[in-house]
Design a protein that fits this description.
The protein is an alpha+beta fold. The chain has twelve helices and ten strands.
């Protein structure tokens, strides 16, 4: 194996295709109705009124996608259904902590979700796979413009959009990218990177945002400044920083490409996922991260779409939602193991053959 570097076969110079690092894109707008106090000041009755107004504006609006939305009354969901929405990144953890008076408008393909009465009256969120900040922003902006016509969002000429939290005043926009950074995580560089980014108005957090861990070396990178800057400027800043992180991650991978301990972790992880009978959620996230790292280094032919889908489907609440019943932890661990095994069983590992052929020479 010595001297064989699969990474060297595909030197990364393309910043147009960054799917090896960027998992998904999210654009979120925070908006409030001018005629009502912020949600924290609303009675349950007033919250229901706001929810009704927003629901009507979306479902009976003039948008070409209005009839593709469905309305979800959050108080009517089971705990598993509510948590699954968080696991699928469709709502925030805070949104399901108190569900009374809250509603969700969800597009049929789940690319657009509109939270009603979270921290603000309206949270418009657009999610897309890969790095598509401009496309996601364009769609979110169109929805925002259409809703503003009937909802009359609170706006001040000097301050911009008014929000409950001062950190969102201005554009009210949060643009974020979900990144897989195993090499930078392994090298211990993330703390230094996080500190440097904060000085640039960018924040990097764990898998589910503020206060969460980067499970599976997955991070959320997002803009922190919303006042005194336009939405497009914020997106450009985030894009520039993201490209720098992509380059740093790829350089770090090259340094680890022939590390026998890293390769051992990658192949052991693949073996466990292919043969284990029980796999916990945290363990599975780490193992999938290692396998994804193997894909990124060229060891496995597994498409990123499959890996991205598994990141969601293995989560506890989503697993139970898809099965249609409550499961014990042991039952979840068994079903999770079978789910991943089935997804990976048809995939190839051509790198093994290349390494073996190289050793024979």
């Amino acid at each position: 194996m010595k001297g064989v570097s699969l990474m060297s076969e595909k030197k990364y110079t393309d910043l147009k295709n960054v799917s090896d690092v960027v998992i998904s894109t999210r654009i979120r707008f925070a908006r409030n109705l001018r005629e009502y106090p912020f949600p924290c000041r609303l009675s349950d009755e007033k919250k229901r009124k706001v929810a009704s107004i927003v629901k009507e504006a979306v479902l009976e609006g003039h948008s070409a996608i209005s009839d593709r939305f469905r309305y979800i009354q959050m108080s009517e969901l089971t705990q598993e259904e509510a948590v699954s929405l968080v696991e699928r990144h469709l709502v925030s953890p805070e949104f399901i902590s108190e569900r009374q008076g809250r509603g969700l408008l969800l597009l049929d393909d789940e690319s657009v979700s509109i939270m009603i009465n979270e921290e603000d009256h309206v949270r418009i969120q657009v999610i897309s796979s890969g790095m598509k900040l401009d496309e996601a922003y364009e769609l979110a902006d169109k929805i925002d413009t259409l809703l503003d016509e009937s909802l009359n969002f609170a706006f001040n000429e000097k301050l911009g959009y008014l929000t409950q939290c001062p950190t969102n005043i201005g554009t009210g926009m949060r643009a974020s990218l979900m990144l897989h950074l195993p090499a930078l995580y392994e090298s211990g560089a993330m703390n230094k990177i996080s500190s440097s980014l904060s000085k640039l108005g960018i924040v990097i957090r764990g898998l589910y945002g503020e206060g969460t861990d980067p499970t599976g070396a997955i991070y959320q990178l997002s803009n922190q400044v919303t006042l005194g800057i336009t939405e497009k400027e914020a997106i450009k800043n985030l894009t520039d920083i993201a490209f720098q992180l992509v380059t740093q991650e790829r350089n770090a991978r090259e340094k680890l490409a022939d590390n026998i301990n890293v390769l051992d972790d990658i192949y052991r992880s693949y073996g466990i996922l292919m043969y284990a009978k029980l796999v916990s959620n945290n363990e599975c996230m780490k193992l999938l991260s290692n396998v994804r790292f193997g894909v990124e280094l060229g060891h496995f032919e597994i498409d990123f779409e499959t890996l991205n889908r598994l990141l969601i489907e293995i989560q506890p609440a989503t697993l139970m939602k898809n099965i249609g019943k409550k499961l014990t932890p042991a039952e979840r661990d068994h079903i999770r193991a079978e789910l991943v095994k089935t997804a990976l069983s048809s995939k190839k590992i051509p790198a093994c053959r290349r390494l073996e052929d190289s050793d024979k020479k």
